[in-house]
């Protein structure tokens, strides 16, 4: 191995400190791309040496689930051991959660795991509020001098290559920023840690190892990737997803966020594509065409996908792989304006023919007399076959015949058309993504894809995904009928969205890329932003509306309002007046809160004094919705885990009981009632013996374990009933 290659962590840490000194400002990717072992080495070195000033700048730090009680521990530990295997947790995260970070160490994050740090003053102080596209700028301003990343390795056409795999998002832009300034580049160290558990991905992710100063390369350090468990999809989420699925246009672009709601949207699209009769029954049963059928016709559709979708998303969610494998994501795009324009217009298709060459000539994409650069262009995109060559200004056919490079010479064209054309356009993509995160099944699915199919997924920098600037002409062609689907927590009556924080300043997650996509939707002539939210939330036993009069913090300003979706329907608010916005939002508000919203709007003069909520929207109530969904659920149209499940049957039963128990214990009255009920006669515990054994409560050893056993059995009986 070379001097720049290390087999273990400590010597690499030594080299980093020797190179940049004891003030380390370390940039590392969000989520899975962190080289956890190297970060732990840097962190432990700073813990032992207080003269080192260590700043770690990142986002979405991942950690095995941490139990908050002994009962949770009994459930989580066996589950986490099975799910996370030899995944290496981050030492700085354990100390940050406990509030014990040393004074010489800071962790700055621009995006939190949702709600994880609500009560953590250190994390709250060190949150950096930035658009995803501004993070590289902010890191450069802060003086980042170390960049560390986990990479995959492969040999491509005889050359060793790295793949940034799950995270080219910021790294590509950071590399380019420093490489454009050679003097600054000398002051920074880039370190790659090879972990071949990562899928080798292409596009911007494929890089020359020489771009890194140091690399850590030891198969013994390969470890499992962090795979968050797939969570159950609720009835409410299925209903939101059903609405959203009608707004996606065949032949368009799709962006979807992470989480169970994203899984629900993927499931609804698969239902529309694969089981269309049942899908049509579902949307008719729930009254969607009656409520906004004209909008469905204008913006979306309800038929199977013939042309298919192109996925362009900062995050490649697991569901995209399901959509790819089942023929929903299949529209290919190409990084060439002339070619993409011809495809969009229907002048050519992906099957190469003489008409393909004629169209490129007519649009001056190539000239009549080809030069070498134009020949390479035609060959790269598959217009010419792989065995055709260009030698000394002439085209050499696969049979070895030399032809003038004159595309309008009849004799030349006859030969070219007969022997030199390719069969299908090449180097297209059905998916562009900035990063990915998902289950172990998802990672294995990516690893198992044949190289040809994996190349259809092109990983890109965040600046190429989240905005139009710098590549606008091409992106406008790629992002035809784009639908950017994201989630917010609340929406105000004026149309502003609350997605990342609370009005007291508490950060829940972060802006991330949401603002980027919402703003981009406004700039695309046929693009639309779709923000989803649950109509209500429950806190300490009390139900609150998520559609509110006003709020002391917003993420998306009201002038960027577009489409909002709850389980009760869709509000189309782009270009609407203040009064019209409120009327639209009332239609998708839980009916228990409509009158209060109307009263406040009238008091502010935003609704006329004689306004009344239309009677057809007065039944926006959970029990009414669930009753209408009941026959569809009985048909199996809304499964709890549509994309797969990481829990055993025992864990599902226990998880449901523990979640209900936690909710009951969240209020004083509920806690007293639950504890009192636990001392009722225990009865026969035989039906729950396997569950008690899973929780190590089959033979309680003390009062606490006997109480746990009683609480759990009582709740399991209620769940069973």
Taken as a percent bin, the fraction of beta residues is 15-25%
Say what oligomer this is.
Answer: single chain
By DSSP (H or I, 4+ residues per run), the number of helices equals 29
Structural class: alpha/beta
C-alpha-based Rg, rounded: 28 Å
- In percent, how helical is the residue content? 25-40%
In CATH, the architecture of the largest domain is: 3-Layer(aba) Sandwich
Mean pLDDT: 94
* Bulk shape: globular
CATH class of the largest domain: Alpha Beta
Specify the CATH homologous superfamily of the largest domain: Glutaconate Coenzyme A-transferase
What's the CATH topology name of the largest domain? Glutaconate Coenzyme A-transferase
Biggest sheet statistics: 9 strands, mixed
**What is the count of β-strands?**
26
Distance between the termini: 65 Å
**Domains (count):** 4
List the keywords.
721 residues; alpha/beta; Glutaconate Coenzyme A-transferase; 4 domains; 9-stranded mixed sheet; 29 helices; 15% strand; globular
Write the layout of secondary structure elements.
Blueprint: E1 5-6, H1 9-20, E2 23-27, H2 36-48, E3 53-58, H3 70-84, H4 91-98, E4 105-109, H5 121-125, H6 135-142, E5 146-156, E6 159-163, H7 171-179, H8 182-185, E7 189-194, E8 202-203, E9 206-207, E10 214-216, H9 235-245, E11 253-256, H10 260-274, H11 276-285, H12 288-299, E12 310-316, H13 318-325, H14 337-345, H15 354-362, H16 372-380, E13 389-391, E14 394-396, E15 402-404, H17 410-419, E16 431-436, H18 440-448, H19 451-454, E17 457-459, H20 462-465, H21 472-478, E18 482-487, E19 490-492, E20 497-498, H22 514-523, E21 528-532, E22 536-539, E23 542-545, E24 547-548, E25 563-566, E26 569-572, H23 578-586, H24 594-603, H25 622-634, H26 649-664, H27 668-677, H28 689-694, H29 703-720
Parallel strand pairs: 1-10, 2-3, 2-5, 3-4, 5-7, 7-10, 8-17, 11-12, 11-18, 12-16, 16-17, 18-21, 19-24, 21-25
Antiparallel strand pairs: 5-6, 6-9, 13-14, 14-15, 19-20, 22-23, 25-26
Helix pairs in contact: 1-2, 9-10, 10-11, 10-13, 14-21, 26-29
């Amino acid at each position: 191995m070379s001097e720049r290659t290390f087999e273990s962590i400590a010597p690499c840490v030594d080299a980093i400190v020797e190179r940049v000194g004891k003030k380390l400002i370390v940039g590392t990717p969000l989520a899975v791309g962190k080289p956890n072992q190297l970060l732990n080495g840097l962190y432990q070195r700073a813990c032992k040496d207080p003269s080192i000033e260590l700043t770690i700048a990142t986002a979405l730090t991942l950690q095995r689930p941490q139990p908050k009680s002994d009962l949770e521990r009994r459930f989580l530990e066996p589950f986490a051991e099975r799910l996370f295997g030899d995944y290496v947790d981050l030492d700085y995260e354990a100390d940050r959660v406990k509030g014990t970070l040393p004074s010489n160490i800071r962790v700055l994050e621009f995006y939190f795991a949702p709600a994880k740090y609500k009560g953590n003053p250190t994390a709250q102080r060190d949150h950096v509020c930035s658009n995803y596209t501004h993070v590289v700028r902010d890191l450069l301003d802060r003086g980042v001098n170390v960049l560390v990343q986990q990479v995959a390795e492969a040999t491509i056409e005889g050359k060793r290559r790295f793949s940034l795999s799950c995270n080219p998002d910021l790294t590509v832009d950071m590399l380019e920023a420093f490489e454009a300034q050679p003097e600054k580049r000398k002051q920074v160290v880039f370190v790659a840690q090879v972990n071949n558990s990562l899928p080798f991905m292409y596009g911007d992710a494929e890089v020359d190892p020489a771009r890194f100063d140091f690399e850590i390369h030891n198969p013994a350090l390969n470890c499992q990737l962090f795979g968050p468990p797939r969570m159950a999809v609720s009835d409410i989420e299925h209903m939101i997803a059903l609405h959203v699925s009608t707004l996606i246009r065949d032949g368009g672009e799709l962006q979807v966020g992470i989480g169970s709601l994203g899984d629900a949207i993927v499931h609804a699209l698969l239902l529309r594509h694969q089981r269309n009769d049942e899908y049509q029954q579902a949307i008719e049963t729930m009254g969607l065409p009656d409520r906004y059928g004209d909008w469905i016709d204008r913006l979306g559709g309800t038929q199977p996908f013939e042309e298919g979708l192109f996925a362009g998303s900062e995050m490649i969610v697991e569901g995209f792989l399901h959509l790819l494998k089942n023929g929903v994501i299949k529209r290919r795009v190409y990084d060439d304006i002339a070619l993409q324009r011809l495809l969009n217009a229907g002048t050519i298709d992906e099957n190469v023919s003489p008409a393909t060459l004629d169209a490129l000539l007519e649009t001056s994409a190539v000239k009549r007399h080809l030069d070498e650069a134009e020949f390479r262009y035609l060959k790269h995109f598959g217009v010419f076959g792989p065995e055709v060559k260009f030698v000394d200004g002439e085209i050499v056919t696969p049979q070895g015949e030399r032809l003038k490079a004159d595309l309008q010479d009849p004799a030349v064209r006859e030969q070219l058309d007969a022997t030199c054309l390719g069969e299908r356009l090449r180097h297209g993509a059905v998916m562009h993504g900035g990063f990915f995160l998902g289950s172990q099944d998802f990672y294995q699915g990516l690893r198992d894809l044949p190289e040809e199919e994996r190349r259809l997924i092109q990983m890109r920098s965040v600046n190429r995904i989240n905005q139009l600037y710098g590549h606008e002409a091409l992106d406008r062609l790629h992002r035809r009928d784009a639908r950017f689907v994201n989630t917010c927590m609340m929406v105000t009556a004026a149309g502003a969205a609350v997605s990342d924080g609370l009005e007291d300043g508490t950060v829940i997650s972060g802006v991330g890329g949401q603002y980027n996509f919402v703003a981009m939707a406004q700039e695309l002539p046929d693009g639309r932003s779709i923000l989803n939210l649950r109509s209500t939330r429950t806190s300490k036993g009390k139900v609150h509306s998520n559609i509110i009069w006003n709020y002391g913090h917003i993420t998306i300003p009201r002038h960027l309002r577009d489409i909002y979706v709850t389980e009760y329907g869709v509000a189309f608010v782009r270009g609407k007046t203040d009064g019209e916005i409120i009327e639209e939002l009332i239609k998708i508000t839980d009916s228990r809160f409509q009158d209060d919203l109307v009263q406040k709007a009238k008091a502010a003069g935003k609704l006329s004094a004689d306004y009344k909520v239309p009677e057809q929207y007065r039944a926006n109530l959970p029990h009414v919705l669930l009753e209408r969904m009941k026959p569809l659920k009985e048909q199996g149209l809304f499964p709890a885990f549509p994309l797969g499940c990481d829990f055993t049957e025992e864990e599902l039963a226990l998880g449901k009981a523990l979640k209900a128990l936690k909710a009951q214990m969240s209020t004083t009255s509920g806690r007293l009632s639950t504890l009192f009920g636990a001392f009722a006669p225990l009865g026969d515990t035989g039906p729950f013996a396997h569950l008690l054994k899973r929780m190590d409560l089959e033979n309680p050893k003390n009062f606490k374990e006997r109480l746990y056993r009683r609480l759990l059995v009582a709740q399991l009986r209620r769940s069973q009933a």
